[in-house]
């Protein structure tokens, strides 16, 4: 449930069972009865991800529904209230939420006026998995969204604006793998997560301070090789 109106960065990840889905699987994200995003998983694919910047009102509830019959392994939804610097000299008549239609409420329009939201979402995926050696960095260079951030050529998110950020990381591993991942801002360790045996999924979330030009990267901190199918890293500059 949303406790404070404003501009939010929304991300959703889903991992379907196996790769035998023969028809498209559709997921829809709602704020109460309002559809704000959707994502389709096409036949024989197992992973889907979506990111969007939207305006949300206090007491709205974010939910996700499957519009088709599916077998689901894992799903996660995040919402981060973004830092939105507004031009206070503008008159009230100029209030306009650029993320929603003209039917958005006046509160939302005021919150979203001339925003400079920061949301980065980079991912890696390999249909049959890829082996990573110890201390090897994950090439998170597939762009899902990059608002006021850059996707680093070396794999990760390049921070363009200093501030307080909400960081999330998700990974999907081969079954039975015991793995540890470490998240760095340049050479600075900011978070880690361990996947225990008989578990295939890893996820971690943390609020950290990041500086302009720092690059967020994730490495395999396991003592052995791991087989990784999918991973994603997000960074959202939070409203102070």
From TrEMBL:
Residues 86-106 are annotated as: Disordered. It comes from the Bacteria. This is Uncharacterized protein. It comes from Fictibacillus marinisediminis. The lineage of its organism: Bacteria, Bacillati, Bacillota, Bacilli, Bacillales.
């Amino acid at each position: 449930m949303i406790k404070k109106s404003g501009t939010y960065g929304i991300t959703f990840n889903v991992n379907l069972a196996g790769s035998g889905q023969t028809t498209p699987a559709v997921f829809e994200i709602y704020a109460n009865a309002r559809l704000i995003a959707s994502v389709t998983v096409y036949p024989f694919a197992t992973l889907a991800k979506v990111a969007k910047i939207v305006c949300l009102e206090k007491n709205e509830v974010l939910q996700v529904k499957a519009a088709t019959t599916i077998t689901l392994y894992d799903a996660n939804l995040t919402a981060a209230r973004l830092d939105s610097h507004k031009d206070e000299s503008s008159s009230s008549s100029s209030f306009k939420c650029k993320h929603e239609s003209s039917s958005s409420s006046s509160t939302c329009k005021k919150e979203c006026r001339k925003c400079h939201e920061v949301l980065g979402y980079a991912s890696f995926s390999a249909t049959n998995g890829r082996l990573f050696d110890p201390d090897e960095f994950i090439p998170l260079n597939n762009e899902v969204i990059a608002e006021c951030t850059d996707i680093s050529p070396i794999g990760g998110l390049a921070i363009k604006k200093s501030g307080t950020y909400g960081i999330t990381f998700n990974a999907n591993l081969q079954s039975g793998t015991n793995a540890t991942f470490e998240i760095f801002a340049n050479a600075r360790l900011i978070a880690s997560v361990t996947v225990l045996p008989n578990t295939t999924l890893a996820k971690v979330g943390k609020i950290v301070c990041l500086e302009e030009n720092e690059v967020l990267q994730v490495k395999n901190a396991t003592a052995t090789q791991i087989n990784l199918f999918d991973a994603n890293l997000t960074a959202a500059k939070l409203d102070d």
